[in-house]
Amino acid sequence: MTHHNAHSRLALVMIDIQNGVLSLPLAHDPDHLVQRAAQLVSLFHHNELPVVAVNVAGRPSGRTDQVQAHVDMSGRWSELDSRLPLKADDIYVTKHCWGAFTQSTLHQQLQFAGVNQIALVGVSTSIGVESTARQAFDLGYNVLCLTDVMTDVHLDNHLYSCEHIFPRLGEVIESATLISQMN
User: What UniProt keywords are attached to this protein's entry (predicted)?
Assistant: First the structure.
């Protein structure tokens, strides 16, 4: 259950809901995810709460055991999905790593807006979303993980994050629960 009080300010943080990522072979229907995310954006705007749109435009250069597949990020790959009803005064973050707080001004922007709680959605559950949840938790944010507005290339990774990692970092809820609490 989410706990809202007079000292709590919530922001929606959307991870990598963008053309290139949504074109990957995802475990859940990307159109459904975008539809739910768009509904949340409208609700947060209506309630005059911050909306954060994060996109990825690269990756760290460190060595890994797993061979990194070449992804052509040219063209419109990094553009946010146009079905999201974003506004010019929303917070925009472009990242070049997994988590949205690393090498960005996201934490400072959320602090400036008085935010201490985030509703987290996006792709990929086990990479960008989970990394951002871990970073937010480490920074002291209350984290609401809206698992029906997340997906991953691998269903088993998505389920593991939702069932085993997110409960240790925050509260796991469905978007309908948050929507009913905010209406």
Answer: Hydrolase
Residues 6+ apart with CB under 8 A from 37: 14, 17, 81, 84, 121, 122, 149
Task: Say how many domains are in the chain.
Answer: 1
Enumerate the β-bridge partners of residue 142. Answer: 117
Task: Determine the residue type at 159.
Answer: L
Q: If we measure between CA atoms, which residue out of 116, 106, 122 comes closest to residue 137?
A: 116
The answer to the question of residue 3 being in a domain is no
Q: Is residue 116 part of a domain?
A: yes
Residue 75 resides in a domain:
yes
Tens of pLDDT along 64-96?
Answer: 565 666 566 667 889 999 999 999 999 999 999
CA distance 93 to 54: 5
Domain of residue 150, CATH code: 3.40.50.850
List helix spans (H) across the chain: 19-22, 30-46, 106-112, 130-138, 155-160, 166-169, 175-182
b/e map 47-64, b = 16+ CB within 10 Å: eebbbbbbbbeeeeeeee
